Amino acid sequence: MLNSYLEGRCSCQVYIPIFTMIIQKNNYDIPDFLNEQFFKNVVENKVGSKNFELTSLDFSMGCKPEDNHLSKVYRVKATYNEKKAGSKAENFIVKCVPLEGDREEFAEMDIFEKEKLMYCDIIPRIESCLVNIKTAPKCYYVMNEPMATMVFEDMKPTGYDIGDRVNGVDINHCKVFLTKLGQYHAGSLLLLEKEPSLRESENLKHGIFSSLSFSKPSMATMPYLNLSRLIDHASKWPGYEKIVNKLKDFLTNKTFLDKVVENIRISPGDIVAICHEDCWVNNILFQYKGNSVTDALLIDFQGCTRGSVGLDIIFFFTVNAELNVLRQDRDQLIEEYYYPAFRTSLEQGSYKNIPTIQDVKNEVKKKAMFGLLGAVLMLPFISMKKEDKLENTMEALKDKNKLEKMADIACSSERFKETLKIFLKEWETYGLFD
User: How far apart are CA 75 and CA 154, in angstroms?
Assistant: First the structure.
């Protein structure tokens, strides 16, 4: 399926180019392999024909370097002439994943192969189980050499963009995203029921947060540095004494990440989906029409795994939602947006034994330790103001002094502290710190 999707060829007569190709790199450092032939292959896969002439490529950056530490992302407008149809343009996102140097250890986690599998195989099958629902941008081209590279449709021309990273997203963003997440989860449940072999697939055995990833210094060091800062803050909060003692135990005995891995693991009774497992704001595209948020799509499927639907829900809340939402709206969002979308999609697919709304809420409670990981590892950096961010986070991971400084700054935001005040007290009632 993958080969036919990426390498299908049309038997139509080739349209012979007669004009000079124009490439505008606009002073950006663009890899040499992103050339005319590369984009001919991309456009061919997009339009399903060789009967066109590529006339220009216009490059810009797809995101700032500090917003994506594992990839280099470019935005490209490709203009071409199609025989009998005149000039046309397509907008693409090109994601290059260097897997050497600072990022070499991520190659061992097969993040590129995982994402290729998801975009080119699993997601199309998930969407085929749903009724006219789009969960992610389309992938048009993939290559492994000379650099792991994927090309997607650019959603920006149709109004998609990322939400507010620093302050968190408001209730309207949450409504739209949780509706889409419910549909995505339902589609994956339907696919797992239809194709049980996926329940045993090695490619979906673990995500980006696992015993393998936590064995890497770049993933294991920061959670404990941030945890120590959280303990410093929480020690000054009246009524948090018991919680602080347990957090100190996690830190002193280095048991925190072991407990996270145990919490991620599938347990009896879990509602098992193909989870995204990294639902932070930069991995979500929101569609805007005027002042309204109308849709959401997931991107960056490098960490997908079989797991409880509660993983994605609790992670989304802890790292993305603004404080007002956390204080008063979470139950409503699950009851009125996530669950109806989840249930409706399962009903449309004739799913057997549809989970109840209480089942879903129980999943979220059970995965509180994963929520704590999101709050400790991800939220500090997400809520950092842009002027406080280090230029090269990957480089900082190798420098203890820079790491200490980064942890001090990242864990000092009011949003970080107020979010943890809310969740730590709630999780205490679940018995998380017993």
Answer: 7
Say how far apart CA 303 and CA 204 lie, in whole Å. 9
Tokens matching residue 426: 């709630």
Report whether pLDDT(9) > 50: no
The whole-angstrom separation of Cα 268 and Cα 266 is: 7
The rounded distance, in Å, linking the Cα atoms of 339 and 221 is 36
Residue 322 placed within a domain: yes
In sequence order, the 6+-apart residues with CB closer than 8 A to the CB of 1 are 120, 121
Which of 77, 96, 115 delimits the end of a domain? Answer: 96
Q: What is the pLDDT of residue 283?
A: 96
**Which residue is listed with tokens 């007569």?**
13
Q: Which domain holds residue 40?
A: 22-96
**Percentage of the chain with pLDDT > 90?**
75
Of 96, 127, 151, which one is at a domain's C-terminal end? 96
Instruction: Give me the pLDDT at residue 102, please.
Output: 57
Tokens of 403: 């790491």
Vertex 120 angle, CA 122 and 354, to 5°: 15
Q: For residue 147, is it within any domain?
A: no
Question: What average pLDDT score do residues 92-111 get?
Answer: 76
Beta-bridge mates of residue 149: 96, 143
Q: How confident is residue 144, by pLDDT bands cut at 50, 70 and 90?
A: very high
The predicted structure's pLDDT at residue 219? 81
Do 379 and 237 lie in a common domain? yes
Q: For 265-298, what is each residue's pLDDT tens digit?
A: 999 999 999 999 999 999 999 999 999 999 999 9
Q: Show the beta-strand stretches assigned E in 290-411.
A: 292-298, 305-308
Q: How many domains does the chain have?
A: 2
